[in-house]
């Protein structure tokens, strides 16, 4: 039996399988053949390093990664408390600072426990925000601050915009404090260009690596989610996010919004940088709505958690105007703590292999034991790729390589693509049937109607088929034999 964590989501195993292939075979690939960079690089490096240091042990690796995932938001939460306690002057402000520290830890644990990369951002982001309070002086501090910003971007590439804005705020504050010195900006840039370039060097190397090997700056997963044939907005992401994860996050987001509006109404210009950070989640989700018709997953709530210290600063700065913001802060903390605790206790009580995606993966592993060959699968392929024991081509483009991306971009016939890549078996979940009883296959299946897809009509009987209950709905997995089929 393969080791597994009951907390990690299916997407984590894209990281884990590629990391294992990289450590074991030197192959940066999910299926062992097609090169991929469909991951955030720093977390991938940590997963690979843990697997290598564990002596190639799945069990030890997953335990250690689970511990790291739990520790990271706690580190961030401790730093948040250290920042906020500087502004504590009475019991009211103490309650506010305590509440937001709890929010950071509880919210961080909820999404970091997925095994995804967001925990790294949550551990490091408060240090970046500290730059809005403590000026950076001298080339050495400029280097460290730039390196910190670079590290956060490499932890989660879509954090680049807010990281760059905060970096500019901090640098701009340096100019403001030095007054009207002659030629200040040119002299500062000349003096600090070397530490800035050196601090940003890991990011530059990452960009050059992507361009050289994959022909694009962004990772393949980001490119795959932006393949559309119609301009946005695309409402699927936010509707999916609200439907599945709004019970925990929606009340907290409303509280944050109220506090931010109070800050804006105060007219205090000193709050401007904090307000920008506080509204970052709105900008983040608006960008998703106009960029990608893909659903949002739990870890996409990370901007709400990461921006919460900015909301806390607004609450602390406006607490003298009444008791509304402290009360809202404590309410948000209690809601999040109760919600996260109930979810995680439920998850920890589950058999890690009894979850529908995991149980389906085991059934496919059993099928694979008597049906060797190369496989292809889109949604839910992470755990399957981990346990299958045969090469598995990921058809969504997330970690399938440029070949899959090109096929999706060109709307290639799915069956023709599978045959040209010598795929023996195609696996899919909950395929629709047409009026003739044939199966309508499309990849990526989870992408919305405006996304580009490979499609095919499969008028053939599955060689394996089974259904599992998932939240009261039947999830039917089917395996089709592809080799030897005529187009």
TrEMBL record:
The keyword Magnesium does not apply. It comes from the Bacteria. The chain crosses the membrane at residues 35-53, 60-81, 87-106, 118-136, 142-175, 196-218, 238-264, 271-291, 328-345. This is Dolichyl-phosphate-mannose-protein mannosyltransferase. Coiled coil: none annotated. Keywords: Membrane, Transmembrane, Transmembrane helix.
């Amino acid at each position: 039996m393969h080791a597994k964590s009951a907390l990690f989501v299916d997407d984590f195993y894209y990281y884990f399988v590629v990391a294992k292939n990289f450590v074991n075979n030197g192959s940066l690939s999910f299926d062992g053949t097609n090169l991929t960079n469909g991951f955030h690089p720093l977390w991938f490096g940590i997963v690979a390093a843990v697997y290598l240091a564990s002596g190639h042990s799945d069990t030890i690796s997953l335990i250690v990664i689970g511990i790291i995932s739990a520790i990271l938001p706690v580190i961030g939460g401790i730093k948040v408390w250290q920042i906020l306690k500087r502004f504590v002057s009475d019991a009211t402000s103490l309650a506010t600072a305590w509440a937001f520290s709890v929010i950071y830890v509880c919210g961080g644990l909820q999404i970091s426990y997925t095994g995804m990369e967001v925990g790294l951002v949550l551990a490091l982001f408060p240090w970046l925000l500290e730059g809005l309070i403590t000026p950076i002086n001298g080339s050495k501090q400029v280097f460290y601050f730039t390196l910190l910003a670079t590290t956060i971007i490499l932890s989660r590439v879509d954090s680049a915009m807010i990281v760059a804005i905060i970096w500019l705020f901090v640098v701009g504050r340096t100019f403001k404090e030095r007054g009207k010195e002659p030629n200040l900006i040119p002299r500062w840039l000349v003096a600090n260009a070397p530490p800035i370039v050196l601090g940003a060097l890991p990011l530059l190397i990452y960009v050059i690596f992507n361009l050289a090997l994959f022909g694009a700056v962004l990772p393949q997963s980001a490119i795959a989610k932006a393949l559309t044939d119609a301009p946005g907005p695309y409402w699927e992401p936010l509707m999916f996010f609200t439907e599945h994860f709004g019970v925990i996050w929606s009340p907290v987001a409303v509280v944050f919004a109220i506090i931010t509006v109070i800050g804006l109404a105060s007219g205090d210009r000193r709050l401007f940088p904090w307000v920008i950070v506080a509204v970052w989640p709105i900008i983040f989700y608006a960008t998703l709505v106009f960029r990608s018709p893909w659903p949002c997953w739990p870890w996409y709530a990370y901007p709400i958690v990461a921006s919460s210290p900015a909301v806390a600063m607004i609450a602390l700065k406006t607490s003298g105007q009444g008791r509304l913001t402290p009360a809202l802060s404590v309410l948000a903390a209690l809601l999040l703590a109760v919600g996260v605790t109930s979810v995680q206790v439920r998850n920890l009580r589950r058999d890690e292999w009894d979850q529908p995606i995991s149980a389906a993966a085991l059934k496919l592993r059993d099928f694979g034991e008597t049906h060797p060959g190369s496989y292809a699968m889109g949604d839910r392929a992470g755990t399957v790729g981990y346990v299958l024991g045969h090469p598995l081509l990921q058809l969504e483009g997330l970690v399938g390589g440029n070949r899959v991306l090109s096929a999706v971009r060109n709307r290639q016939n799915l069956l023709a693509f599978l045959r040209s890549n010598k795929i023996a078996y195609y696996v899919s979940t909950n395929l629709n049937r047409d009026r003739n009883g044939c199966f309508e296959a499309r990849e990526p299946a989870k992408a919305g109607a405006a996304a580009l897809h490979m499609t095919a009509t499969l008028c053939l009987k599955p060689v394996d088929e089974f259904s599992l209950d998932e939240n009261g709905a039947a999830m039917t997995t089917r395996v089709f034999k592809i080799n030897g089929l005529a187009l």
